[in-house]
Give the backbone structure.
Amino acid sequence: MDCVVELEKHKTVDSLHSPSSLRISRVREQRKSFSSWQGASPRRRSASIRLVGRHPDVYEPCDDSFALVDALLADKANLVERRPKLCLEVGCGSGYVITSLALILADECHAQFFATDISQTAAQVTRETLSAHGLQADVVVTDLVHGLEKRLAGSVDVLLFNPPYVPTPEHEVGAAGITATWAGGDRGRVVIDRMLTMVDSLLSSKGWFYMVTLTANNPSEICQIMKKKGFASRIVIQRYTEEENLHVLKFWREDLAFDYDYNAETGGGGTTPQSSLSSKMSRLAFWR
Amino acid sequence: MRLLTHNMLACNIKGVTKGFPLGIEHTRLETKESELNADFLRHIFPKLDWKAFHEAAQSVGVNNIPDQVEPVMLDDDEFLRKFHHALLEVHLEEGALICPETGRRFPVTKGVPNMLLNEDEV
């Protein structure tokens, strides 16, 4: 059975409006459930959970992280065909996602990988995770992409973002400790909306942007914002857990006409690959 | 962090117009071998600020990078080997990056540069 399905049995993600302290206790509870299947063999070519660095203030790989990596695995054939050379993850946390991307692309693309996080601790944990997998990539402590945005402009071929998407009171956004890893303010959009303003500048002409969202973030509105900037979008993975409805969205420049054959792996129960959003916005009513 | 990343970093303190290239101070460097890939080097070559790369290489003790380059040099294996080594094999583990305009120091700890700004710098 796929590990993702196994994980979902242990799912402990709390409701969107739970007090932060409850979420912390559940993240810790979840940590125990991870340890219960540490012995499982690494699934496909993603990072191995038992090699992921840990720290109480750093978000451990969770349903959202697995959904993002599963989206990358589902899109692997397309990614490899694009031959990305520069890849960047914003908000890398434990390093599970950027490490997985590096492993997914390892044999074929000869890409270089960058990761950023606002937390020095997370940056070090990411470095440990990369190192435990025998990978080299540079990690920068910064707010989103500050300091990199000028020189990386127009160069990023794959941009990954698993944002703090949980709707919370505004003051929790960027708070100390683990709260900052999920607190997204009004509709969970505060950090997401800041990032959306930078995507156009960062991405190369053939660049792809993958982002995790919740239904509460209004992904259909996010797609419309990006459409105005010239980006087409699709849902690569949609995953229902007990209390979260996760989507991994993918964006690319609309003028870059391509119509690839989409043979996504479904990656476990509750996962549905969808076709292009740009032509099917009317279907998005179910998000609300 | 490697000189590839150094070439992509700039100081963006409010009001700073020339935040690139950052100066390098180092108290610990490491060399880690990695596989040379000519495709990547050819891809990144036009995106690099070569003058900044040349100076950065010198500041970490790599003195065999030519200050003037032509794309035709990317066909030369010996050049590619030197280019690869300076760009991707020399790691700044402990030290600091210095803004050329303000002198602001951005610490590099355990190989990770900290580019976070103070509230009054944003």
Residues 1-43, 259-276, 278-288 of chain A have pLDDT under 50 and may be disordered. The first strand of chain A starts at residue 86 and ends at 90. Chain A has one domain: 3-287. Chain A is about 30% helix and 20% strand.
